[in-house]
Amino acid sequence: MNEAKMIMVGGFLGAGKTTLLWRVAKLLAGQGKHVGLITNDQAPDLVDTGLLLRQGVPVQEVAGSCFCCNFEGLIGAADRLREGSKADYLIAEPVGSCADLSATLLQPIKDKYRSDMTLAPLSVLIDPFRLREVLSGKPSMNGLHESAAYIVRKQMEEADVIVLNKRDLLSEMDEKVMYGLIEAYYPDVQVFSISALTGEGVDEWLEMVMNADESGLRVVDVDYDRYAEGEAVLGWLNAAISLSGDRGVVDWQGFTGELMEGLREAFARNDSEVGHVKVLIGNQNQEIVANLTRTGGEVTMRGKATGDAAEMILNARVEMRPSELEEIVRDVLEEVCLERRVDVEIGQLQSLSPGRPEPTHRYDSVIDTAAK
Q: Cα separation of 10 and 134, whole Å?
């Protein structure tokens, strides 16, 4: 198999990782590169995987645990893409609530698989609104649980590169404030500002990570009790659902918008902070993608779909017990389906709370690849 370069992009839920990875995959493919993507989640039926597969990108999904706790799953996915798709660039997206990636992923890869893969600098994507919340000392009233915010800070602390995303939503002054926060807390980390959605700044960041030859430059101390609590406060739900209109053609854009707004309002009434809610509704070659990344944020939606039937994947990461999350999702879905005269068949639904992280490997120091 050919040697490949792995570009790993971490960052908390809702930071925009999948949007960036899809844009990067298109840019690299446009340069004649063979690209493979590796997605990761605590359970199957991931919107990210479904969306990328619909775009025709070679994708491997590592489901059921994070990369850190299933290191061989990550390596196996990389090998399948290198062999089956001849991928010379692998783009890996860890679970959004994962931290300690340098110690548990980058150092083992440098130590054990240097002849198979080289590593780009570890890039950590950050949502500007989440950045302000976790670093400004002025969290929003219904912001992240402190242990979840701890994960966000640790992700940035271990980064080789911090990538401030969604610059298209920021004024020039806001962007300067964000840079100031990052530089105050992480003065030795390189910073890029991009919009994964519009593409602004992505070329400059990508050129750097493609040409840099150092990765995992620091291993940070992580309190695994606090880390585990930060993951456990989040309820996770993944569902695969078949939809059909009992009166013919359905306004799927209207259906998706009503569903997402219904969920957002239900979580707000429950005072539960959203990490990320994603919905993919598709049929034939059409799809609608909707996102909500904060309880107080706005639902974003793109794409279109027509017809009398569609398949839906729904992912929700919200600060509440999994049983409560499942009840809300079922109730809102039932209400919208009744209102829109849509029949629903839930093929699979799984709700859970992540277990304590138990990484396959954890190195306590940086591996110097030049020394071997």
A: 17
